Amino acid sequence: MEGRTQSFQQLKPLCVALSQDALALNGPRPNIPAVTSGLDGLKSALCKLVSKPHCLDPKLADYIFFPISQVLKLSQRVPLRCLELCLECIAILINQGWAQQIQTQLAAQIVILCTLMAEKTPKGFVFRESSAELQIAAFSCLQNVFAAAGSSLECVAFFRSEGNFPQLGQTISTILDGISDSGTAKTQITATHALSALVCNVADREICASFLPGIVSKLTKILVPTTKRRRNHQVLVGGLEVLERMLKETLSDDPPVASIESKKLKPSRATDGVISEKWKQNAATQLKPALTSVVRLRTHDRDDVRGALADLCLVLLERCRKSLANCSQLALETLLTLSAGRSDSTSSTSIRLEILLKANPTFATLLQTTVHDWLKSLPTVIQGADELEKVRKVQQISAAYGLLGDSQSVTAMIDKMLASALRDSVTITLQAAGAKDEGKQFVSSVQSLDLAVLDKTKDGTDFGSALVQYRGQAEIMGCIEQFVKTISSSSTSASFSADLARSLRYSHGDIQMANFWLLLTATQNALQRRDDVSDFLDFGDDDDKAIHRDCLEELYAFALSTLTASSDEEPPDPRLQALALRALALRAQTAGRDFRYELIDALYPVLSTLATPSEQLQQDSITTLSIFTNACAYPSVRDLIVDNVDYLTNAVALKLNSFDVSPQAPQVLLMMVRLAGARLVPYLEDTVDSIFAVLEQFHGYPLLVEVLFKVLGVVAEEGAKAPLLAVEGVAKAEVAGMMQERWEPLGVDGLAEMLRERIVGDENQREGSAEEREAAPQRPWITTELDEEAKEVEDEDESLTQFDPRLDDTDPPPPAPKTYNLLFKVTELTQHFLPSASPSLRASLLSLVHTTVPAIARHENSFLPLINTLWPEIIPRLDDSEPHVQALALEIVGVLCESAGDFMRTRITQLWPGLLALYRQTAKGISDSAFATTTDRAKQQRHVGSSALVTIPPAAFQRAVTRMQTFPDSYTDTSTRLVWDALTSVLTAAVKSVPLPPELFEDALEMLGPVLESRPEVKTVLENENADAVWLALVKSGLVAVPQTPAAFVGAGKGRAEWRFPEMLT
């Protein structure tokens, strides 16, 4: 009471002011803005009051309604805004004030008024068209009026009276026009709520029957999805609920039980006989096309819309199964589509549909017939171009089959068609993908050996999709896979799998691949499902278990035969190989640790697929190896390979010894070494001997030789990583210790002693010349020089042996004897193939030698004779026509210098002219590329220096090298830059590791001059040899400023010397 009093005190001034302003509208000076302001203030006050309970009652609502009614009486003199505010205030009064106690006449007047104002072009008003805001307010009032009237028997009786039919029909028509034709979503939503309130609260069975045709016709146009107009989801949900309510009221097989209040109402019209059997038949005939259009909403993306459509279809099946029997299949198909999703609404739909099938066997029979027809037409649908229709059809069949299984219906007729229908569907999908992949080119196995897939090995145990070739396939194949899992979870899974297993061996091509994939998916799901629950539940179906086990063994045997099949005629399909890998993985997961006994047959084929050109198949192979490792309880894949190395090497050797020239055996060996690393190399001695035998027999086949040497290169690469052979800091120090006599600049004392010796030598020569004459030569001069050089090399080797105290008569064994001997034999073998005509093979062999030399150098007594063996074959490669081969040969010379030290002194001295010639050629290439203009080239050609190594100005050549290093792609081709870098490296290694004569060091300093500033490591090596010479070279090139002598040391008199460094240098 207190709250009502406070509300009255707040509203009274507003109502009085509004009443006065409304009365003034009849006067000569109407104040329309004041009326508008008063209504706006009243609405705001009402909105604040309704937030508090019990602040409004019917009497206070009547008091507030009085000034509003005064404004409404003069509706032709006020603007639309005033009418909008009036209706908004009335809506609040109905909802919070009058509510259930609304007067019948007042409700009728409000309905008439709101119906007029809700029309697009209302009659009886000064304005021609209504506004969206006014329509929203009018529909909101109608919603509240019908909701309040539903609780009043008097109001309900009035609205249901025969005399009110015309007005009720006018109101329904206006609301439907508002939903259909309004341009704003809010207007449509409000109108939908008003229609729902009318149907649910006022309309009875006879009213619904009378207006059913018109409402259904209008709602069908509203609910049917179109591309021109997209309805708001609230409008769609509301329209479906209204349609559901009306069908339930009018066409229900069991008429709804009237409530106690409804029984008290006396019939006041003579329309009780509207609903008859004939009327129902006509209605069913007319409703089917409409419902066929409405169920197109099954593809809507909103869950609430699909849920409302599911409720409508369930009403057709549950409540109207007799009267609308012609719509039962339509409703059932729609429900199957809606239940194929994964949302909460679809889950509840599936449950309700399952209950319905169990309760009514008629629908189960209808569903079986429907699924049978769908399976027959499925391959035809898959051949179409509509991807969404394909997915929808498979989902429908899957959901229907799952419901039949859950309802324990008999599916014998359907089970006979499942395997063939799905096989044909998958085959059609694969053939469509094959047409798109015709342009793909096959990559040779030689190139596949260069793939770095093993460098990014992952430990995952999940496979990707084996058959999906493009994005459009993924969804349909995923739906079919889900359907197969549904089948494998049912009681008929054993017969389905047995049917596929029988046809697996006798099919070919895409049909065989489809059989393989379907059987593998079904068997995997069936075994995993039973393993998950077998510890808790006993199914008692030992026969089914035996069938699935037999299917797994069939898959395992077929997978092994697929992976080990000969590929002489054409390469195997990577998709079939991928399925075979999955079958092997499933067998390993099922067998567990016992699968170790099967590795003798399964491991070799998996490794052979690891070196295929298909990157996806490589990843599948890695995943399979990871599954093998986990199933057999190995710590890692390396342990898996090493523990089974006997089986693997025997298999590889068997193929090599039988002179099988296919790349499979080398690929397997390559992947074994890559996976297991240096631990595997000691076991490969016999296998490498077999490779040598193949090379001896088939040395005329360049491609085979290249493949085998790539394998040997990987073996050498991994073998060089063995702990006892890896060249580290200590080992490099030992190699550096082999250097003996190193030239050093003479000091003053040494220079004086040299001059004394030269004077004594000159005197002895003069004395001897007077007594003796040189005898005539007895043989050619050239032969004499060659003999002297040979004797010098022999004396050098003997002196090296005598000088080094570490070399004694006992020959210590090499570190890691097995691995060392293998690397030595592989390196020694390269001498016979280095003159090959294949540039890639020559490069591969040189790279192999470059890898093995540092490891072999750990045992000097074997390594130094190997240099004598390889040197005659390496040096000609410096004149090779391929720049990258030249660069590799130079790098090997540098490695030999670093590894053999003083042993290379004479060889480097003899090779020096060739290095100078190569330097001049490379320098000319760098200069020609750098100086693009004719002016620079003219300046370059005018410079001639007899003492210089190249006829290029030093400053110009320095700029050319700087440009090459700064902008390599713009000024120099890759081959020239490659040779230059290798030449720089070999010169640096020679200066660092080999004692060179002074004149050779001067040449090296001049050749390395352009890189002294850009490569500090080169400068450091040269400074360690002769820092003064390096400083002088830097001064000459202008990189170091000439120090100036202080003025105190420059004498001006005759008795003092004048020291000026610049004059001395010139």
Topology diagram in text:
Layout: H1 2-24, H2 32-49, H3 58-73, H4 80-98, H5 104-118, H6 132-149, H7 153-160, H8 165-181, H9 185-201, H10 205-223, H11 233-250, H12 260-264, H13 277-294, H14 303-318, H15 328-338, H16 344-359, H17 361-383, H18 387-406, H19 412-436, H20 445-448, H21 471-488, H22 493-504, H23 509-533, H24 542-563, H25 574-591, H26 599-609, H27 615-631, H28 637-643, H29 645-657, H30 664-676, H31 685-697, H32 702-719, H33 729-736, H34 748-771, H35 781-803, H36 817-829, H37 839-856, H38 860-874, H39 883-900, H40 905-930, H41 934-942, H42 954-966, H43 968-971, H44 974-993, H45 998-1008, H46 1016-1036, H47 1061-1065
Describe this structure in words.
InterPro entries: ARM-like, ARM-type_fold, TELO2-interacting_protein_1, TPR_TTI1_C, TPR_TTI1_N, TTI1_rpt. Residues 762-781, 787-814 are annotated as: Disordered. Residues 762-776 have a biased composition (Basic and acidic residues). Residues 787-799 have a biased composition (Acidic residues). Mean pLDDT is 79; it is low at 259-263, 266-271, 438-458, 728-741, 799-809, 933-947 and 1052-1066. The radius of gyration is 49 Å and the shape is elongated. The N and C termini lie far apart (121 Å). Helix 5 (104-118) runs parallel beside helix 8 (165-181), helix 14 (303-318) packs parallel to helix 16 (344-359) and helix 15 (328-338) packs across helix 18 (387-406). The relative contact order is 0.03. The chain has 47 helices and no strands. Among the domains are: 1-101; 896-1066, no CATH class. The chain is an all-alpha fold.
